[in-house]
Known about the structure:
By secondary structure, the chain is an alpha/beta fold. The chain has helices spanning 25-40, 52-56, 61-71, 95-104, 122-133, 160-168, 196-201, 217-225, 245-254, 295-299; strands at residues 8-12, 76-79, 109-111, 137-140, 173-177, 206-210, 262-265, 271-272, 278-279. A 4-stranded parallel β-sheet has the order 4-5-6-7. A 3-stranded parallel β-sheet has the order 1-2-3, with helices on one face. A two-stranded antiparallel ribbon has the order 8-9.
Amino acid sequence: MKNGSFVLDAHTGFWDASKENCKNRFGDAFIETFYAFHNGFNPPEKKWTMDYEKQFRKVDPDWYLDEVFVKGDADMSILSTQVLMDFYYTGFANADRNAVMRARAPKRIISLGGVDPRMPNAVDEVTRQINECGVLGFKWYTAEWRGQSRGWSANDPMVFPLYEKCIELGVKNMHFHKGPAVEPLSLSKFDVRDIDEPAWLYPELNFIIDHVGLPRLDASMISAGSLLAAPTSTVPWPSPSPLSTTARASLQKSWRTCSSGLVLTASSTVRTSPSGTHTGSSMISWPLSYQKTSRRSMAST
């Protein structure tokens, strides 16, 4: 631990958006938007740049380990997923590549799976990723394209068998991207209001709202308030953030583990550590247990 604090970087990426992996112009647009966020949100006094073609389009595993754990302040990290098979031949960030990356530092990296629930074999793929890739959670990308479909909802009954398979196999952490849209995906498909229903239906699971629903902060706070339990953590902001002072104060007040397992994570596009190193999200401190307060335990009190 650096500076006496345990730090879990809850939103990092090990992606491949190389020219060789891009299927079409939409794959190029997606990574170009990422790069624009990287440049636009960099704090002006500590510029940190990556060459677009040589470094940014495809993450190098040695670079990742050095930036996150050596130069950065993270003790552990979570590898996210974005399947995006309509844009990339092998997906943007997938469970198999995450498992390879995790093997480099198995005590420091938590890898997530990623499944499109519209796949005909979606439940089987959940099982495979848990058993073969060792994922400890899933990242759900509700704005993802699949053929003519331009997204799906977390409260759609077609997704419920996937949640139930996760419960059966002991995987509890359900991460949802509920934040800024990345071209060409629709902002409306990342709306947070599809989370309440499954969060109440499946109290065994943690429903984790990545990016706290920005730019829909009010809707996120209302959803969290309807499920409110005791506060468990606060968000330290060690350096300039793209969030406004008002939004930052709201997040610090409403960071909660909720009775149905609804958790808000304050990851933004640029993470800045006190040493000036940037990675893929804001630095946050999490409880070591990485657990929730269950609705059932709340009901019995």
